[in-house]
Amino acid sequence: MPDDDLSISLLGPIRAERCAVNLYLGTPRQREVLAVLALRSGMVMSVAQIVDAIWIGRRPNSVENMVHTYIGRLRRVLEPPGRRPALARVLRSTRPGYTLDIPDGSVDITRFEWDIKLARAARAQADLPQALGLFQQALGRWSGPALQEATGPLAEAERIRLTELRQDVVEETTGVRLLLGDDENLISELRWMLAEQPMRERLWELLLVALGQTSRRAEALTAFEDARVTLADRLGVEPGHQLQDLHRRLLRSEPVAVRPWWDRRVSV
């Protein structure tokens, strides 16, 4: 059974599959050891680095032995049936620690980031349907909060990064849908998103554009006031330049359109 049949999911519960069969990964701590190695796949991780990535503050006296035990159990699960530990090729012992040696794309985070790069490239070439499909494929890779149940500092830092990147993708997907003329369907979705994240100015911008493009100028002006009050009350700031520019255009009854903020975004 080839090693590229193994896939590891971190965009939700920590899981692993071989040939579409779920593998039993043990306790939450043991799953987090796998997550740490998957986040650094191809790199040598010493036992001390694994411990620092997972445990904060006071640690069990035998924490290094625990890591070795977790590695041994994971190796028995991750290696193809019949392969002896001494011949391990997936989870290898490499001085001064361990390496998870898996093909590119075996971890769903990598595939998520590949989708985003391809989507942004398609959008730059004005292939909006292709960009939309790739953005939606990227979002479809999530099955819950990233690195669910993992509590260590590495997982927390990566969770913050991935959650922000996912929100960027949600907003970029919405922008592409607006460019494709899907205005009416987006308005209720944007209002729902703003109820969850009222400080995201880009969502307010998208709502104003969607309302403006559907001849709901009065509602768009009301939405700007809602944004201004929300930002002032919660953050003590005025709306940003792009939001204010949209407001001025609406007041002058000028056309409004999606601002290409993505042109200034750093690639994944």
Automatic annotation (TrEMBL):
Residues 1-102 bind DNA. Pfam families: BTAD, Trans_reg_C. Signal peptide: none annotated. Residues 1-102 form the OmpR/PhoB-type domain. Keywords: DNA-binding, Transcription, Transcription regulation. The keyword Protein transport does not apply. GO terms for biological process: phosphorelay signal transduction system; regulation of DNA-templated transcription. InterPro entries: AfsR-DnrI-RedD_regulator, BTAD, OmpR/PhoB-type_DNA-bd, Sig_transdc_resp-reg_C-effctor, TPR-like_helical_dom_sf, WH-like_DNA-bd_sf. The keyword Transcription applies. GO terms for molecular function: DNA binding. Belongs to the AfsR/DnrI/RedD regulatory family. This is DNA-binding SARP family transcriptional activator. The lineage of its organism: Bacteria, Bacillati, Actinomycetota, Actinomycetes, Micromonosporales.
